[in-house]
Amino acid sequence: xxxxxxxxxxxxxxxxxxxxxxxxxxxxxxxxxxxxxxxxxxxxxxxxxxxxxxxxxxxxxxxxxxxxxxxxxxxxxxxxxxxxxxxxxxxxxxxxxxxxxxxxxxxxxxxxxxxxxxxxxxxxxxxxxxxxxxxxxxxxxxxxxxxxxxxxxxxxxxxxxxxxxxxxxxxxxxxxxxxxxxxxxxxxxxxxxx
Amino acid sequence: xxxxxxxxxxxxxxxxxxxxxxxxxxxxxxxxxxxxxxxxxxxxxxxxxxxxxxxxxxxxxxxxxxxxxxxxxxxxxxxxxxxxxxxxxxxxxxxxxxxxxxxxxxxxxxxxxxxxxxxxxxxxxxxxxxxxxxxxxxxxxxxxxxxxxxxxxxxxxxxxxxxxxxxxxxxxxxxxxxxxxxxxxxxxxxxxxxxxxxxxxxxxxxxxxxxxxxxxxxxxxxxxxxxxxxxxxxxxxxxxxxxxxxxxxxxxxxxxxxxxxxxxxxxxxxxxxxxxxxxxxxxxxxxxxxxxxxxxxxxxxxxxxxxxxxxxxxxxxxxxxxxxxxxxxxxxxxxxxxxxxxxxxxxxxxxxxxxxxxxxxxxxxxxxxxxx
Lengths: 194, 372
Known about the structure:
Chain A has two domains: about 1-30; about 55-190, Alpha-Beta Plaits (2-Layer Sandwich), CATH 3.30.70.3270.
């Protein structure tokens, strides 16, 4: 009998404590409110001051971008990718380090490296990407990076890149080449050699 | 399930059920509302983690370990890199060790918050879940500030970490701890000492210590049964031997030792211990270069190694065989949630169907880790 009433008493008091907390939060709704009405309001992204040379390391996990004029086609990022979402094809350039204006190929990178290869295909399938950031580090020319981060003036961060068509998530970074241009690059004309 | 008698019924809970914490199917034989037999079916989330590791290089394994126990990715990374460094005989700088401990303990708090919140949800308390997720969000913000990712970090690398800490990390982290410590009392008032919650969990699903040991259960589930075993204390890895912290044990405060409430209560106490560890680590955080010992090429010598660490779910072990090439010959992961789930059929027999949900929730399983 005593236990019966003790049970009831315990239920009432603990419920009162719990409801007290809930009510306190409800009264202080201005202060305690954490819900954001998403499309109208955005969560502020943390201010990143990571305390050392900012340019070298990327602290943002967003979509990838490639400065194709700086790419030398070394395939290091392709090899680093654990899910194989980066695909690169290259063709040997006829002359090292010279521009080919017909196909918009620049011969020298921003860091001053002479390019020996023409990147004929550079695609990243963002629907496969696992955002592990492993491809960013090995790049010798620092041309592949996640947008935002140190390159934010060039490419502001964008987390919302959903598409209606799955194919639109395959990003093509290389300059478009026709098949004639490709075969011309692969088999240089004899008069050009002479 | 065998022969089913006339008044018995075979029920499938899951694979799509909110209380199975993932994609798990429980086949139960019920007699009225009493469960007489229970059989978990797993494999719905199987992603060939171990086989996949044989085809990628050592550093590419780390993003896959993230995806095993996706609630506590830092701890999974931690186990893997500790094992690899032991195999390659790398001595990482002090700063890296401290950063790793801070991150692992923060992730432990986040993981326990999710475990406790969803456990409350399983037994019918909705409000604590929202409050715990509010605070978990702050931990994820700290991770985002540090490494850019909120859930799958790929933060700890073999020989170092991917990013150094941000400049005012100490202030932010201490600020969070000061904010979080009083909140534990709020959770206790809301959920732990609630009479309805106690009635649902105390004395339910008792896991005796000898059964727990024979099933290989580890972590908070084992400690809830009153067995004092914590890899951080008993087999210290990294720098855990430098910190002072207690190992909370289940005491059967409201029922028998090893019941669902004890498993829950051990997790609450562990959060307090984690706060202690983080405070000590931040106080002693040395300066240094975190990229100093990251090897250019990871090519461990021939041999094999097994090391275990304490993840929020228990002993997380990695067994790595190297044949001297840049790709591992074999990676085996010993998952603590798998053993916890295997004990379910033993301890949930004879309880009511609604209690089975409460028992399953108290084991805190993550199906991503069980199926791998």
